[in-house]
């Protein structure tokens, strides 16, 4: 339904404006419609009663292709593990380097910040009572 409407819109736009319009669709809507046609779209209600944690991951987590391998034709036993590890894999892939911290410097810096905040609070209280 979504694909057909989008395609018809693109054709009408091309005919009226005489410009080439690239066929762009929302990935999730496109993947859901194709999965519905194939019969592998996950049923989240059924999945919620079987494995609530996985259903919540599918609903609120990142959209990964492994979600379409949970039910229907072409099911894959590793799909659950792939869905659960997706957030970790995204963070790991975008972490280009690890920073080491010098514990002595961070320790001294945190004490300096605490002392500065305490001093600012004492000065603010003194000024409030002085000028009331």
Write a structural description.
- With about 130 residues, the chain is mainly alpha-helical.
- About 5% of the residues are buried.
- It is about 65% helix and about 0% strand.
- The model has no long low-confidence stretch (mean pLDDT about 80).
- Helix 3 (about 45-50) runs antiparallel to helix 4 (about 50-60).
- It has helices at about 1-15, 25-40, 45-50, 50-60, 80-95, 105-130.
- It folds into 3 domains: about 1-40, no CATH class; about 40-100, no CATH class; about 100-130.
- It is built from 6 helices and no strands.
Find the count of extended strands (DSSP E, 2+ residues).
0
Inertia-based shape: elongated
The low-pLDDT segments are none
**What is the count of helical runs?**
6
Brief digest:
The protein has 132 residues and is an all-alpha fold. 67% of the residues lie in helices and 0% in strands.
Highlighted features:
3 domains, elongated, 132 residues, single chain
Give the topology:
Elements: H1 2-17, H2 27-38, H3 44-50, H4 52-60, H5 79-94, H6 103-131
Helix pairs in contact: 3-4
């Amino acid at each position: 339904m979504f694909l057909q409407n989008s395609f018809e819109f693109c054709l009408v736009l091309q005919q009226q404006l005489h410009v080439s319009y690239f066929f762009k669709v929302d990935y999730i809507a496109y993947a859901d419609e194709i999965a519905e046609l194939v019969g592998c779209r996950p049923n989240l209600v059924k999945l919620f009663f079987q494995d609530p944690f996985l259903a919540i991951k599918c609903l609120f987590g990142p959209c990964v292709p492994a979600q379409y391998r949970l039910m229907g034709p072409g099911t894959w036993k590793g799909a659950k593990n792939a869905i659960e590890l997706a957030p970790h894999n995204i963070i790991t892939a975008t972490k280009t380097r690890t920073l080491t911290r010098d514990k002595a410097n961070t320790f001294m810096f945190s004490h300096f910040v605490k002392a500065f905040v305490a001093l600012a609070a004492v000065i603010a209280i003194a000024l409030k009572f002085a000028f009331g």
